[in-house]
Amino acid sequence: MTKHLLLGQTLGFLGNPLRGEWADVTRFDSAGGVLIEEERITKTGSGAALRAAHPDAQVTDYGDALISAGFVDAHMHYPQTGIIASWGKQLIDWLNTYTFPEEAKFHDRAYAHDVADRTLDLALAHGTTTLTSFCTIHPDSVEAFFDAAASRNMAVVAGKTCMDRNAPDNLRDTAQSAYDDSKALLETWHGRGRTTYAITPRFSPTSTPEQLEALGALWAENPDVLMQTHLSEQRPEIEWVHGLFPQARDYLDTYEAFGLLGEKGLYGHAIHLEPREIDRLREVGASVVHCPTSNTFIGSGLFDLMGLATAGLQIGLATDTGGGSSFSMLRTMAAAYEIGQLRGLALHPAQLMWLATEGSARALHMSGEIGHLGAGAMADIVVLDLAATPAIAQRHAQANDLWDALFPTIMMGDDRAIIDVWVAGARWEQN
Ligand code: GUN
Ligand code: ZN
Question: Is the pLDDT reported for residue 431 higher than 80?
Answer without folding.
Answer: no
